[in-house]
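This part of the workshop introduces the protein records we will be handling. The structure tokens are whole numbers drawn from a learned vocabulary of backbone shapes. The record below serves as our worked example for the rest of this section.

===
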Amino acid sequence: MSDEHSSNGQKSWLEKITKAFAHEPKNRQELLRLLRDANQNKLLDNDALAIVEGAIQVSDLKVRDIMIPRSKMVSIKATQQPEEFLPAIIDAAHSRYPVIGENSDEVLGILLAKDLLPLILQRPAQLDITQLMRPCTFVPESKRLNVLLKEFRANHNHMAVVIDEYGGVAGLVTIEDVLEQIVGDIEDEHDVEEDSYIRPLPNGDFIIKALTPIEDFNEYFHTDFSEDDFDTIGGVVLNEFGHLPKRNESLELGRFRFRVVNADSRRVHLLRITSLK
């Protein structure tokens, strides 16, 4: 390809971008409309559009919208010895754990799994976890995610304990939780095996394929969704939405919250479900 042809191609692409934004958007709705038009005109691919939409959405979300609730936190008691807490750490496979005192509302600090590695060689008779834990950051559940992300980056923190209006522990939130609202699910824990429809997650949630037959879903979760109108759980959820949902849209149905993990312009691929009871 000649330099002249390449230059002309680049000029043509830039002209298209300039034309698309010739009319300066005056509000968020107009901005999103321009971005979606650019996507339809092949100036912005689906992944890029999803990231921009996610970044815009973050300023509307609060910590309470994405936090891991207290009931699903995997924590370690300050008085526990390795033989007592290691099975839970191995099973959860997280990198950070809140350390609690005698009162479950008393979070003393954060234990990094990597800080336990020296124990393999040292094998101390007794271990004081409080000597290994890092300082803990506390945030209110009303804090906006864009503000939290700035604080995470400025303070180099990756996890914060969420406090409710009464000062009690409401849950926890990680920088990965915030970033996933922008770029989509990061960890491969959300991949479902090719020959499977449902994958449990360490925190008690599940990732399921939208193509999961309703019969299989009902059998696994002991539910009674009707098989008369739809063949798959994706069909049931799509009908409840009333439109083709985008990534991170959610709804409550029965005793579950369904959140769209992966979707394109034609159909939903993956759902994340959280029990409401």
